[in-house]
Amino acid sequence: MIAQLWHLGAISHPELRDGAQPVSASNVNPGQLSFTRAGRKPTVTPRPLTKQEIRVTAADFARAARNAMEAGFDGVQILANYLYLISQFLNAATNLREDEYGGSLENRTRFLFEVVESVLCEVDAQHVGVKISPMHEGGAFRANDETLPVTEYAIQKLDTYKLSHLLLMGNTTDFSGTPLEKLTGDGMFQHFRPLFSGTLIANVKMDRDRGNRLIAEGWADLVAFGRLYIANPDLVQRFAENAPLAEVDWETVYASGPHGYSDYPTYQPLKDNLNLYTVEKS
Ligand SMILES: Cc1cc2nc3c(=O)[nH]c(=O)nc-3n(C[C@H](O)[C@H](O)[C@H](O)COP(=O)(O)O)c2cc1C
């Protein structure tokens, strides 16, 4: 069991920060929705982190990693995708900085690598992973010409750290007509597999057969299931038995309470099958 470490950056909201303005790479409103206690609200314009604050934030990741290990987790995963702080540095549309954290690929990835190196001061690389992908979402995160090169640069450099894993998300939005078009579907894993020699975990819309195929074809070492695991606590067994799969109830996800995360039922076979099973066992 590993703990995921992330910082919302500009996806936070003054209501979550006692009125304080959220922070980011630059003062660009990412144009997303923030989850506040009073429901979803549009994000606001953040303020840029100072260089001193960037150093403190990287150190905060290290402290969080240390806390996680002390609490008994087996490792940590740094979240470097979605729309959160690290992505806000990687993305040329949300990072307008003119110091050593903005501009070139090396500069826009600098914060990511300061976080990685800071975490590695606390936790051995075999217990540290990164979740990443060239996400294409709305607002400021719409794919641009810099999206693919910065992800390639980041993944190639991440490979040199001999991390526990790289969790690579496939496309969650339609890439047609964008610079990411060739990354649609399996294209994501086919493109990045040659750039990362460690354990590569493929994610997004996996099912049993696709997962087995991607591993057999060498495009991934492991596959990760999100929604299926929320709705099917016995997912492995259901796959083994080819049992029907339950779907996520969207009313109960995203900070609405424990209901809907830990109380999905396990698969109940039809009564006849159950009897058959019992007879065979005895
Ligand atoms: C309710 C819910 C909460 C999620 N929370 C996180 C999260 O905290 N961190 C993260 O990296 N991904 C999170 N995800 C995304 C999943 O980890 C996964 O990447 C995504 O659902 C795609 O995989 P899937 O197609 O198997 O669902 C969440 C997904 C859902 C449905």
Task: State the gist of this model.
The protein is an alpha/beta fold and 282 residues long.
Task: Provide structural commentary.
The chain is of the alpha/beta class and 282 residues long. It has one domain (2-224): TIM Barrel, CATH 3.20.20.70. Helices cover 32% and strands 13% of the residues. It contains ten helices and ten strands. The strands form three sheets. A six-stranded parallel beta sheet has the order 1-6-7-8-9-10, covered by helices on one side. Bound molecules: flavin mononucleotide. Flavin mononucleotide (FMN) binds at residues 4, 79, 131, 169, 203-206, 225-228, 230, 248, 253-254.
The counted number of beta strands is 10
Low-confidence stretches: 275-282
Overall structural class, as computed from helix and strand content, comes to: alpha/beta
Q: How do the strands of the widest beta sheet line up side by side?
A: 1-6-7-8-9-10
Annotated CATH homologous superfamily: Aldolase class I
User: Sheet with the most strands?
Assistant: 6 strands, parallel
Mean pLDDT: 93
Instruction: Give the second-level CATH assignment, the architecture.
Output: Alpha-Beta Barrel
| Structural domain tally | 1
> What is the chain-wise order of helices and strands?
EEEEEHEHHHEHEHEHEHHH
Question: Keywords for this structure?
Answer:
alpha/beta, TIM Barrel, 6-stranded parallel β-sheet, 10 strands, disordered C terminus, binds flavin mononucleotide
